[in-house]
Amino acid sequence: MPKEKSVIDIVGKPLKLEEEPPPPK
């Protein structure tokens, strides 16, 4: 899951932001 999250954070940053805000680091 950590690897997938990294890819989503980079490739799906705008998509994830529109879908749901990412958790604070």
Written account of the structure:
With 25 residues, the chain is mainly alpha-helical. Helix content is 68%, strand content 0%. The chain contains 2 helices and no strands. It has helices at 2-11, 13-19. The radius of gyration is 8 Å and the shape is globular. The two termini are 16 Å apart. The relative contact order is 0.17. The mean pLDDT is 61. Residues 1-25 are annotated as: Disordered.
CA-atom Rg in angstroms: 8 Å
Low-confidence parts: none
Largest sheet, if any?
A: none
Question: Strand percentage, roughly?
Answer: under 5%
The number of E-state strands comes to: 0
What general outline do the C-alpha atoms trace? Answer: globular
Provide the structure class: mainly alpha
Helix content: 55-70%
**Order of helical and strand elements:** HH
Distance between the termini: 16 Å
Helix count, DSSP H or I runs of 4 or more residues: 2
- Average pLDDT metric: 61
Region (Disordered): 1-25
Which helices and strands occur, and which strands form pairs?
Layout: H1 2-11, H2 13-19
Helix pairs in contact: 1-2
Summed up, what is this model?
With 25 residues, this protein is mainly alpha-helical.
Question: Features of this protein?
Answer:
mainly alpha; about 25 residues; about 0% strand; single chain
